[in-house]
Every structure is written in C-alpha cells, then in structure tokens.
Amino acid sequence: MPQKTTPSKPSSIEIIKTLGARIEVTRQGKGRPVLVLHSEDAYETGSDLIDTLAKKREVIQFKMPGYGKSGPPGDLRSIDDISYLYLDILDQMDLKKVTILGFSVGGWLAAEMASKSCERIQKLILTGALGVKFGGPYVRDIEDIYYNTKEKVQALKFHDTAKDPDADMLNYNERQSMAVARRREIIAKFCWEPYFHNPSLKARLARISVPTLVVWGANDGMTRPKYGRAYAKQISGARYTEIPRAGHYPHVEQPGAFKRKIEKFLG
Amino acid sequence: MEFYHFTEFPWPHLPPDDTFTSMRVNLPNRHFDPEVGAELYHSYLDQYVLADELGLNCMINEHHQTATCLSPSGPLQMAILARETKNARLCILGNPIANIADPIRCAEEMAMIDNISRGRLECGFVRGVPFELFSSNRNPTETAERLWESIDLIIKAWTTHDGPFNYEGKWIHKRQINLWPRPYQQPHPPVWTTGGSSLAHACRTIERGFTFAMFLTPADRLAEMFNGVRDYCKTKKLPAPADDQFAFMPLVAVGETEEEARKMIDGVFWYVTHNKAEPQFRAPPGYVETALYAKVVTGQFSGGRTDAIRTQGVEFFKKNHVAIYGTPDSVVKQIKSLYRKVGGFGHLIAMLHAGDMSYELTAKSMTLFANEVVPKIKHLGSISTGFGPLADRPKVKPKKKAKRKATARV
Question: Of A170, B31, B300, B373, which is most buried, counting CB atoms within 10 Å of its CB?
Fold first, then answer.
C-alpha cells in the first residue's frame, strides 16, 4: 500500500492490560466503531485506508503481541489465545455494534473472536483471512511462506510484486529491520504448526451470527480464491467478493476497488 | 586428549550441479540408488570398526532430508557400533531432542546403548541445524527452550530409580516416567551439547558439568567462545572448567607426504563445497537471534562467515585450523598450535572422510592419524574432577583410561 508521507496521527494511543498481556490500542475519528485487525505484514498500520475510514467512523486498531507498543507474547501460544485478549478489550472499552475489519492473520483473529461471541460485533469483513483448513491432509491449503524463496513468496502474495511495500528492504535502518524481524518471529511462533490454522475453528465458524463479507484478491497465490469461497460458505449468510488484479492484500494492490467494496457493505 | 573418527555418511553421487538448488530439504530421493547406498552404509560402518581397532573413538550424527548425510537416526548407528566395537567411546552429536516427538524414548535408547556398549556412551544433545525444522516441522521459536527442557527431563529420568514420576512442563507432558533400562554409567553418561554463536548456551553447558563442542570454527572464534566460557566461570566463581569439557571438530587428513595429505583433504573438503542450500532454509524465523535475523530477512546479510570461508579454499581453512592436514609431524604441530591458541581443549573430533573418498584412502589417513599423530598429543588436556553433576565421573575414568592405553599399543 502506498504509505502516506505524513500519516495523520491517531487521536489516541493507549496500552490496555488484559489477562496478563499489554495490547496497544489506537483510536482515530468519530462515529460508529470499526475495529481494524492488521495482517502479519502490518501494511494497514498508518495507511490511507485507515484515514479514509476515520472520516466518517471511529477506527480502532489493536496491535498483536510483539507488534508496535504491545507487550511480548509471554505465555500466549496461539491466535485463539489472542482472540480472548481482544474480546476482553472490547468489554473493557464497552464497545458496542463494532464492525471488525481483519486482514489475513487479522482476519483469522476476527473469525476467532466472532466464533466465540458476537455480542459486541455488528458486522465482519474478512480479507484474505487465514485460520481454517478446508482441504484433505495432502492438500496445501495455504502456500508455505517459510519453505519458498523470498521471490516466490512475494509472487504468491502479490499480483504486481512492484506493489509490495517491503519489496526492497536493503536500505531499512536498524529500527525498521528489527520490526520486520520481530513480527516474522511472532507470526512463526503462533502460526508455524498447525500451519496458519486452528483445527478447532472450522466447526466453530457456524456460531458467527452477524453479516459477513469475505473479500479476496482474484490473483491470491498464497490462499487461492477457492479457499476464500470455502471460508464464506462456512459462515451462515456470508457474502463472497473478489477484487481483480490483486493478490493476498487486495487493499494494498487495489485500494480504490477495495474501499468501494467495503463502503457498500458498511452502509 | 580423546580422539574421534567422523564421517557424515554422505551421498556423493549427485546430479549435475546446475540441476538442483539445494543438497538439503528438497533434493528428490530418486537420486539415491539403494544398491549403491547399501554398499555405502557398510563401507562407512567399516570405517568405525577400523577406528575402534586403531584405538580411536567414534562420533556419530544424524540429519534429515539431505544428501549430505544418509543417517536419519544416530541411535541406529550407535546400536550397531555398540556391538561391533570393543573399546571406542561412542559419541552421538547428537540427539535432536528439540525436534523429536518423545525425549523419553531418546532417554531409553541411550540407556540401552550405554548398556550394550558397557558404558561407552558419550551422549550429545543438539538443537539441530535450521534445515531440520523443515523435516521435523518443529516451531523454530521453541527449539532452544525444548532442548534444555528435554535435557533436564532425560537426566531426571536416567537418575530416578524408585518408580514413576510425573512431569508436566512447558513443552513436554508425561505422567508416568519410569525408565527401563537405566544407564550403565553412573550417575549417567557424560552429556555434550554443540553450539555456534550463543555464548550463553555454551556457559550453561559447562556450568552443568557437560562438554561443549564446536564444529569447523576458525581458531580465533573458537578461542573467543572457549575463553568466554572460562571468563564466565571465573566471574561466577565456579571452578575452572577442565579441558575435557571442550571439544572441536576440524577436517583432518594425514598422509605420508604433503602431496598425499593434500589429495586426502581435497576429498574431505567435499563436505564444504557440496553443502549448498536455499537461503530461506538457513534462517527460519526464530532460529537465530533477532538482530541477526533482521539482517537476513532484509537482505543485508548474505551468508556471513560460513559462506565467506566456503569460497576461500582449503588453504584458508588450514590457516584458521579448520582443516588440519599434512604429514604426521605437520599435523602434530598444527594441533598443538590450535590447542595453545584456544587455551586448551580435550576432545578432537577428526572428520577424516567425506564425499566419494574410498575406504582405502580414508583408512590410510585414519591409520596414520591414530599411529603417528595421536601418541604424540594424547597427553594434552586436563580431565574433569568433581565439577558439576558429573562429580562421580572420575570413578569410571580410570577404567576408560586403562582401556585407551591398551588400544593405543595395538
């Protein structure tokens, strides 16, 4: 996603203590609450998308343990564990009628939360969401980002690899490099095995009782559209939509088309 | 000083170099010919039988999904050698207990091998090289913790003799642990670990009374690590570690002439030149420390010391004491020089075979090493006495020493 040269500052940043962990929570704008759960690559943080959404709504962002100012993962072992922290923060903040917008691993987190309780959730938008295994044991539902070369992984994630915000990291300074390294370690910790999924989640998706939109990049090579359609099928009443000329991060590659799709759903 | 023979059980019959990207993880096994492979297994095991006859010890390892090493289970060779050898110490470096499903099964296997060999086991535990995480699928962020949790539990299992105990730790859960058999050596076999860049891991190893081994490390870096450990013991007011708590593995070749030795070491050097792997196999996230991984992942680090020395050739290895080769007198000098530079060590693991070196050529190098080199340097190095949990070790030492002297005369 084209990073803004001067991202507008979130109106507040706070660290919320929950179940022994510390989670960075930012709030920006006014209106109906939209909770953005970032992807493993955190391209959403400080992006135009957040600013656009914050014009008409309050955008709230939770940072995963190890990301931003959130504390280290400590004894947390799974995305399932983190979903309880996030549900607890919704309670602490007493948020109601929240729309959750989750990307990739953030989409998995959104699905975990909604499968446990939709009490404070009004709508779900899952973009390239992971977390479920649909195929048989010999099927590679989600391509192996650890086994493949850097170039192959980039080609799996992006329709146009020139649009990868981390395409050239050679000139990253120490702070930037350490941030990339830390988040990849955190994701490996939570997602190495079972590989980017929770075997218990698939059956539990039936508990999701709010309107859900599943958004997929038509050229996603990491999790193909077939996976996205299976995800939507598993959630009662969910709608599935594809964005052409886009890979695993359609909001990064086709920000205009992505905004139009979700604006319509947000109403 | 103790001396060990080592071959990694290589598969030398590789397809043309430009037809594959990695020796490890993804090289299809259609390139392994079982009829040729069977002969190789016997030839490699014969090397160890010869080592025993020559008065050398044996070091065994394992790797997975790789043509560099046809041994996917060190305990299997150990079991064979426990019967086929008579005097050699049998050192496994090591059991990849962070990667295997059941550390208690490992404790049982090692105890059995210790019994069959009548107390000749030197039991190494390793975290495993990064490539192994693709075959084991173990989470790289967990393996450093799993290694030490497993070591502690195995020692507890080896040393508990009054029935089942419970263990529900961070990574391992077992409710009824009751080992049969118990190990032959008391209180338990000597324990080793291996290491690379982590001084903390080396210090932990020595502090526990174990032996710390490093492979193919330039002498200056080896000295930095060994002396780092010695300084740590001094600061913590621990007894100074004996030399036999430090081990090193260089590439070794001994010839009647310099030319012959050079021909032999070129054979062993196959191990260095035929070790290519795709870069992402070397650094899964969480395996190395974050600061180094940050450089790897951003492309700011490409291979480092390991790759640098790989391109430098065998002379560079010799200068850094990573390859030790020449006539017997020259090799004696090189080992003594290395011994001085690193402040002493007590175990020399000689990688005397690699690639397609024939049994005959390897046997000649081994024989010269055992007969012409070892007698001149075996007096080097101090021996542990009453340090750490292996305080009883000297009780089995004299017997071992006597055996070694007997074999040295063969």
Answer: B373
